[in-house]
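Our platform keeps sequence and structure together, in a single record for each protein. Because each token names a local backbone shape, the row as a whole describes the fold. One such record is reproduced below, unchanged from the form in which we store it:
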Amino acid sequence: MDGPATLEWRPQARVRYLMILAEIARHNARAADNMARLIMQKLRYLLVFPRIYRASTRVAGIREIVVTSNYLMAYRITSERIEILDVVHARRDWPNPPQRMPSVH
């Protein structure tokens, strides 16, 4: 074993994961099921080999799972667990939050 064997989802990551699956399912239920299976498969690999996925070039100490060309998952390895930090669409400028557009009056 290469590291901790416990996986913990941060609340925002779990919410985004479920929102992404719901949005995909709205258009194609089979695609959403396939995405969920793919993510679970990658997480099973992660539990066995925590450093299997690439180190982030955006944030020090974070690693990134490229789920598909459109989605990635950010995670951190601690001495106690693997923390899933976020599930991100490729168009989003992660880790920078989107800027709010000024309202026009």
Summary: The domain at 7-89 is CATH 3.30.2310.20 (YaeB-like fold). Confidence is low (pLDDT under 50) at residues 101-105. DSSP finds two helices and five strands in the chain. Strands lie at 7-9, 54-55, 63-68, 71-77, 82-89.
